[in-house]
Amino acid sequence: MTVRIADLMNESGVRFGTSGARGLVTAMTDRVCYAYTRGFLQMLLDRGDVRGPLRAAIAGDRRSSTPRIMTAAARAAFDLGFEVLHAGLVPAPAIALFGLKEAIPTVMVTGSHIPDDRNGIKFNKPTGEILKSDESDLLAQSIEVPDLFDEGGALRVGEGMSLPPPIREIETDYIRRWTNAVNANAFAGKKILVFGHSAVGRDILVKVYRSLGADVVASNWSDKFIPVDTEAIRPEDVSTAIELARSHEPFAIVSTDGDSDRPLISDENGQWLRGDVIGVIAAQWLGADAVVTPVSSNTVVERVARFKTVERTKIGSPYVIAAMQEAINRGYQRVVGYEANGGFLTATDISMPGGPNLTPLPTRDPIIVQLCVLLSAIDAELSISDLMARLPSRYTASDRLENFPTSTSQKRLANLALGGNDNANAMFSSLIGPITHIDTTDGVRAVGESGEIVHLRGSGNAPELRCYAEAETALRAQQLVAQALARFTMER
């Protein structure tokens, strides 16, 4: 049967966006996952993006549905003539790094931070992440789906395939990237607590920090998937970090989201740090001359006045990657990017102070950010909280309305944007004062006369409405998020 990917997307409800294909596990049948993977690889073949022996690597996170989806993706690659390389359960940046080194496509089965009843597939070309310019080519693919599936879309018994043993060098190369980047005793005398939960990279964090001399405490491992979102941290994860800090008195707590491409790092008190602030510290420590970040990120990046240029984009790593390439084309030598979720990307060779060059890794990575923050504090002989206190006093907060229909958020936000300052004043002026500026780069971002900011946008990969706020204090930013979401809900 011939299937067009765009039609499959509409029929199944499994959408394709900036983070790949995502949907409910019940909708992500073996047939749907097979078709998406085959469409991706066929697109690369049609464009001549794959050369030499056909090979594709497949990895996954710790979700209960991940092994099944990996099998369906592997069968799709095999049927197109690819040798399937099994990466096992490794972080998204680890499989991406392997793909870049080998110049082969890679597939990461993950839903990142979303609940276990959902999952996704993230595709990487031999040159890196799929960009927005690739989406139309993928959706236009018409593929042949063989008669392998039952009426429910599951691979029939005997039609699956056994994956080969995992390639251990994928994990070891990723670990070596970071253990070679800094002095082997960089964290001697420092206690680092690894909050593991169900993050796929939790054991790697332990190995990296122990190799660098830290006294590592591994805590809160879970066999059940936990949807930790580094951009909208759950109240229970806030209280857990504070309690762990009281019990263990660490220099810092480190963690990641489910597929371990976004960082979590706390100060010595267990206070989680915002991703769009630690990105600034990392860019400074790396000596970046060009920084790219989405429009939702904290304006402290401009206020520190340490970079030759700061470029703002729509939200999503493909937009950041495209803007980083533009910065390279304009002659910048040390180009980095980061997102509000903390994921950090490098587009040029770069190094830690005094360390060897790191090859570009233009996909979200958590360890580079954590290392930069920790090393910055150690170099300055400061605690993490004192390091953060050196930055300009601008605080961001974010949260989301879950199960908020995408169509509803799109319609409401479009009407808000079309009304300009008048509609924005009606919605937000009682919160942040008269509106002086509206930015519709991604959603609606309103800047008040007070200097406070409220930003609303629909999620690109889940039925969620996200809200970001910026103010002079952390409490005020949190209040603005809560009030803006409550207002939006009342008018729903």
Q: How do the strands and helices of this protein lay out in sequence?
A:
Layout: E1 2-4, H1 5-12, E2 15-17, E3 20-24, H2 30-47, E4 55-60, H3 66-79, E5 83-89, H4 92-102, E6 106-109, E7 118-125, E8 128-129, H5 132-139, E9 142-144, H6 168-179, E10 191-197, H7 202-211, E11 215-221, H8 235-248, E12 252-256, E13 263-266, H9 275-285, E14 290-294, H10 300-303, E15 309-313, H11 317-329, E16 335-338, E17 344-346, E18 361-365, H12 367-380, H13 384-389, E19 395-401, H14 406-418, H15 420-432, E20 435-439, E21 444-448, E22 453-458, E23 465-471, H16 474-490
Parallel strand pairs: 4-5, 4-6, 10-11, 10-12, 14-15, 14-16
Antiparallel strand pairs: 1-9, 2-3, 3-7, 6-7, 7-8, 12-13, 16-17, 17-18, 19-23, 20-21, 21-22, 22-23
Describe the overall structure.
Helix 2 packs across helix 3 (66-79), helix 4 packs across helix 6 (168-179) and helix 9 (275-285) crosses helix 12 (367-380). Strands 2, 3, 4, 5, 6, 7 and 8 form a seven-stranded mixed sheet that branches. This protein has four domains: 2-170, 3-Layer(aba) Sandwich (Alpha-D-Glucose-1,6-Bisphosphate, Chain A, domain 3); 188-271, Alpha-D-Glucose-1,6-Bisphosphate, Chain A, domain 3 (3-Layer(aba) Sandwich), CATH 3.40.120; 273-392, Alpha-D-Glucose-1,6-Bisphosphate, subunit A, domain 3 (Alpha-D-Glucose-1,6-Bisphosphate, Chain A, domain 3, 3-Layer(aba) Sandwich); 395-490, Alpha-D-phosphohexomutase, C-terminal domain (TATA-Binding Protein), CATH 3.30.310.50. The chain is an alpha/beta fold. The mean pLDDT is 94. The chain contains 16 helices and 23 strands. Strand 16 and strand 17 form a beta hairpin. It is globular and about 60 Å long.
